[in-house]
């Protein structure tokens, strides 16, 4: 299937369709998921070709929880299917994301991708926003909390403020926001990496009297911010010398 649509390739969609057998279908999900092991583009027409002709899932009008549901190797809950959808998500292919989820919802009206563990660490902000807007993932789903918390920590380490603000902006209550605060180690790593803007957002909020307060205050967090600020300042003074971070810590500790 890698050759379909490639320049000078004689392999066409019709070629694939003609050679499909039941034996080929048995391992199709496993084999197709390997296409996503690399960063190569897997276009939507190829994805549609696969699910339409190399699986029976598109034409099966049944819920995956029905006794007649497909075998585990072909089900929407299989490891191989999750590899495919994670590959699509990390490529930021919104059309393909919608296609896959619509198929999943066809088989199970409550379909979600909860079992993705910490595999969204490299997800970009537009794709994450799309997943949340469409309801494909939800901040209220217990299973997704660990995954998004892992993403928050990764974003703190790497300075991806847009990811952090996006998740926090979707939190509607202090208790929900408190679930998506970074770990202490992620905060220290942000200091190590001189991510002043990240730390300012966390401890100071918006530098505007009319703007929102710090994230800790909005979450009614019980964490000892004084201890955190002292630790951040220590890292900055002893190891990295970021003057903006040191000034921020001094100012907040005095206040």
Topology, please?
Blueprint (H helix, E strand, L loop, with lengths): L12 H7 L2 H5 L1 H6 L10 H10 L25 H12 L3 H14 L17 H9 L8 H17 L2 H9 L4 H6 L4 H9 L3 H8 L11 H4 L6 H16 L2 H12 L1
Helix pairs in contact: 8-9, 8-11, 11-14, 12-15, 14-15
Largest sheet: none
Number of strands: 0
Could you spell the SSE succession in H and E letters?
HHHHHHHHHHHHHHH
* Estimated helix fraction: 55-70%
Q: What sort of overall outline do the alpha carbons produce when their principal axes are compared? A: elongated
> How many whole angstroms does the radius of gyration measure?
23 Å
| Distance between the first and last residues' Cα | 63 Å
Mean pLDDT: 79
Percent in strands:
under 5%
In the predicted model, the low-confidence regions spanning at least 5 consecutive residues are: 61-74
Structural class: mainly alpha
Number of helices: 15
Give a quick set of tags describing it:
0% strand, 255 residues, 15 helices, elongated, 56% helix, mainly alpha
General description of the model:
Helices cover 56% and strands 0% of the residues. It is mainly α and 255 residues long.
What is the compact description of this entry?
The protein has 255 residues and is mainly alpha-helical. The protein has 15 helices and no strands.
């Amino acid at each position: 299937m890698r050759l379909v649509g490639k320049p000078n390739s004689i392999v066409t969609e019709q070629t694939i369709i003609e050679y499909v057998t039941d034996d080929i279908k048995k391992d199709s999900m496993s084999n197709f998921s390997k296409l996503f092991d690399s960063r190569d583009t897997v276009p939507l027409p190829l994805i549609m070709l696969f699910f339409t002709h190399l699986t029976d899932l598109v034409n099966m009008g049944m819920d995956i929880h029905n006794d007649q549901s497909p075998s585990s190797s072909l089900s929407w809950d299989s490891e191989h299917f999750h590899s495919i959808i994670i590959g699509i998500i990390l490529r930021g292919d919104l059309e393909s994301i919608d296609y896959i989820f619509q198929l999943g919802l066809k088989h199970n009206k409550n379909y979600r991708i909860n079992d993705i563990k910490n595999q969204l660490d490299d997800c970009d902000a537009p794709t994450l926003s799309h997943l949340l807007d469409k309801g494909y993932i939800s901040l209220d789903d217990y299973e997704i909390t660990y995954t998004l918390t892992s993403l928050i920590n990764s974003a703190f380490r790497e300075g991806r403020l847009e990811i952090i603000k996006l998740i926090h902006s979707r939190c509607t209550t202090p208790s929900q926001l408190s679930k998506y605060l970074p770990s202490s180690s992620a905060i220290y790593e942000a200091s190590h990496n001189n991510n002043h803007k990240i730390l300012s957002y966390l401890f100071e909020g918006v530098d505007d009297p009319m703007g929102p307060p710090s994230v800790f205050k909005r979450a009614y967090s019980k964490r000892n911010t004084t201890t955190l600020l002292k630790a951040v300042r220590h890292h900055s003074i002893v190891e990295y010398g970021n003057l903006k971070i040191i000034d921020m810590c001094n100012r907040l500790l005095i206040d």
